[in-house]
Amino acid sequence: MSEYPTIESCIGNTPLVRLQRVPGNTGNTVLAKLEGDNPAGSVKDRPALSMIAEAERRGDIRPGDTLIEATSGNTGIALAMAAAVRGYRLILIMPSHMSAERKQAMSAYGAELVEVSQEQGMEGARDLALQMQADGKGRVLDQFGNPDNPLAHYRGTGPEIWRQTGGGITHFVSSMGTTGTIMGCSAYLKEQNPGVQIIGLQPLEGSSIPGIRRWPQAYLPAIFDAARVDRVMDISQQESETMMRRLAREEGIFCGVSSGGAVAAALQLSEEVSEAVIVAIVCDRGDRYLSTGVFATP
User: Fold this and answer.
1) Is residue 298 assigned to a domain?
2) EC number(s) of the enzyme (predicted)?
3) How many domains are contained in the chain?
4) Which of 1, 14, 61, 228 is the most exposed place for a label (fewest CB within 10 A)?
C-alpha cells in the first residue's frame, strides 16, 4: 500500500497562480503562492512538520513527549496536525483575542490551549512557553529561534517558486511574523540569482494584522537576519483587509488578512518596476477569519 500518499506527503507543492484582475493594466506578472492548499490550511504546515521531524531525527524528542509552542494561530494549527500524525501531546499558548476558528481547529486536532491576555500578546505567550519548559512541562519547539523553520522553506517553498517561475522570479514578497518563510526563501532564491529582490512586510504602526508583527528588539526572532531582506515595507490594516476582500471577489482567492497585505504590497511594488515577475505569499485561507467580521465590511 506504500504507493498511496500520507497526509505529510501532501504538504508543499502548492499552486502558483497569476492574478488576472487586481493588478490592472501592467506589463508585470503578479503571482500568488497559495499556501492555504496545505493540509492544515497554511504555509505553517511546512515548518511545523520540519521542526518535529528534524528534532526526532536528532533524538531530541520522541512520540509520546509533550511539545509546547506560543502561536497566534497558523503555526498552532499546523503543529496540532503534525503532532496528531506523529503521536505527540501538544500545549499551545496564544493571545485570547485570536479568532474562534483558530482555537477550535487546534482543539479539533487534540491540542491543549492556554490563553494569555491581549495585552500580554505574543511576547507574553512566548515568555510563558519558556517558563513552562523551565518547569519541566514539555519542550518548546520555538518557531522564532529554530533553524528548522526557515529550513523548510529553503528545502521546499523557495525551490518550488524557482521551478514554477522557470527561474524568472524578480521579486519575492512575504509578510513577516516568525520570518521563517522570508529567511528560507531568501537564502534559496539568492543562491539561484542574487538579483532577486526580497521584500518583507510589517504592520504600519498602530495596525493589527494577525500573524505579523513589528517586534520589539528584545523579541526579534533569532532566525531573522536583516541582511537577507532587501526592503521592508509597512502595510496598514485597512489596506490588508481591503485587498483580502478584493482577492475573494475579483480573483476567487479566499485568504487571510496578512495575505491581503502581501498582495497589496506586491501591487505597490508593481507600480515602481517594469517587466517584473513578482511572487507574493498567500499564507492561509480566509475561512479561519470569518467570525471576526472582516469579510462583512463592504
Assistant:
1) no
2) 2.5.1.47
3) 2
4) 1
Does 292 belong to an annotated binding site? no
Query: Annotated catalytic, 208?
Result: no
Which cell numbers hold the place of 86?
506523529
CATH number at residue 12: 3.40.50.1100
Residue 177 annotated as part of some ligand binding site: yes
Does 178 carry a binding-site annotation?
Answer: yes
- Residue where a domain stops, chosen among 95, 111, 140: 140
9 is catalytic: no
Give dist(CA 234, CA 175) in Å, integer.
10
Mean pLDDT, rounded, for 276-285: 97
- pLDDT in the model for residue 62: 95
My answer on whether 34 and 50 are in the same domain is no
Which cell numbers in the block locate residue 173?
514578497
Buried b (16+ CB within 10 A) or exposed e, 190-207: beeeeebbbbbbbbbeeb
Q: Which of 33, 44, 175, 240 is catalytic?
A: 44
